[in-house]
Design a protein that fits this description.
This protein is of the alpha/beta class. The chain is built from 12 helices and 12 strands. Helix 1 runs parallel beside helix 2, helix 1 packs across helix 9 and helix 2 runs parallel beside helix 3. It is globular, with a radius of gyration of 19 Å. The two termini are 29 Å apart. The model has no long low-confidence stretch (mean pLDDT 96). Bound molecules: S-adenosylmethionine (SAM). S-adenosylmethionine binds next to strand 3, strand 5 and helix 12.
């Protein structure tokens, strides 16, 4: 039986995002715009057994939702094996995966069979040439095929995540909602965030939740807020015909006060916040022979000290520029969004 813990603001630890690789097969200009990157050394990457052992520790303190992410998680060989190991952990009530979909067409059924409950595919545009300009790869057809395979694989839910940027894809809100409806997915529009990696972030490229709702309301008519967000990042809304969608307004309306999430990088660094400047290394103690009780003790101690509210602190800044200067980013892979997972 898990005994849950809270941080300094009374927030529980319920959700863990596990990055399984820092590598990606796309170069989205809001996440990995640079020509080259420093990668995590291969020997530091956690094995599936190590990921499962650490996750088991988190489950003992109340984590019941686990999301596999990256980098691009489908680049990690034999991922269904990890899915099966995590799905078998008593206490994991919700096991989800976030992917860019490029390699999904051949893998969706195996992931579902291995026990994955839910899947989220990132899709920023419905236009092939625009996709190529945004990601530097001509892989749009592969992503659409991946979404199609996921919609047939019988997941408990299929979501699409779209980062909306002014002047890039803000003319596609309606088209994307219609596409999502057609494939049986719920779409979530994400405000462009000034996270590490987003070295080209500019405040004026952010389309706020308010502006998104204005555009959608002008097209569809009155939009109803659904409320009941709880600790989930997305505010949900319904169109007049009942179609639902979400908006993740982390930039204009941060939700740190409800944040019960933390992140494990592929090399075992545990981060309290997407904006954190450093984390706690869980790989070293594990490889040095720490028992589950030792790990649980460490997790409890660190979480009980947590006071992070990165997105709210960013909102309070008078001038807002990319979070990490490029020179600092190049020296420390752990500051990158593709290392931390989204
Ligand atoms: N490769 C996988 C994918 O594309 O879904 C998982 C990792 S990716 C870092 C996770 C999510 O973070 C994606 O939906 C991506 O769009 C989002 N993301 C990355 N940089 C972002 C930024 N600057 N602002 C908002 N969302 C961002």
């Amino acid at each position: 039986m898990a005994i849950s813990i809270t941080d300094r603001f009374g927030r529980p630890l319920s959700s863990l995002r596990v990055s399984v690789t820092d590598r990606c097969n796309l170069r989205c200009h809001y996440c990995m715009p640079e020509p080259d990157y420093a990668w995590l050394p291969r020997e530091t990457l956690l094995s599936f057994e190590e990921i499962a052992a650490i996750t088991r520790g988190f489950v003992s303190v109340g984590v019941d939702r686990v999301r596999i992410t990256g980098g691009e998680p489908l680049l990690r060989r034999d991922l269904p094996t990890l899915v099966a190991q995590l799905a078998a952990l008593p206490g994991v009530r919700d096991l989800a995966l976030t992917t860019n979909g490029v390699l999904l067409a051949d893998k969706a059924a195996a992931l579902r069979q291995a026990g994955l409950h839910r899947i989220t595919v990132s899709l920023d545009t419905l236009h092939r040439r625009r996709f190529e300009a945004l990601t530097r790869f001509d892989a749009h057809a592969a992503v659409l095929a991946g979404i199609d395979a996921a919609s047939r694989a019988g997941f408990e839910s299929l979501k699409l995540d779209t980062v909306i940027m002014r002047g890039t894809n803000d003319d596609e809100l309606v088209e994307l909602i219609e596409y999502a409806r057609g494939v049986g997915a719920e779409i979530r529009f994400i405000e462009y965030m000034d996270v590490g990696g987003a070295t080209r972030w500019r405040r004026d490229a952010v389309l706020s939740q308010h502006e998104m709702l204005q555009i959608l309301g002008a097209h569809y008519g009155p939009i109803t807020p659904l409320g009941g967000r709880g600790s989930a990042p997305a505010d949900r809304f319904a169109l007049p015909d009942g179609t639902t969608f979400g908006i993740i307004a982390s930039t204009s309306q941060p939700f740190c006060e409800d944040c019960d999430r933390s992140r494990l990088t592929a090399d075992g660094v545990w981060l309290m916040c997407l904006y954190a400047s450093a984390g706690t290394d869980l790989r070293r103690p594990l490889r040095a022979g720490a028992t589950r009780d030792d790990l649980v003790h460490l997790i409890r101690t660190v979480w009980s000290q947590r006071a992070d509210r990165g997105a709210e602190e960013r909102l309070g800044l008078a001038t807002r520029e990319p979070l990490i200067p490029l020179a600092a980013l190049k020296k420390n892979a752990h500051l990158e969004m593709h290392t931390r997972g989204g």
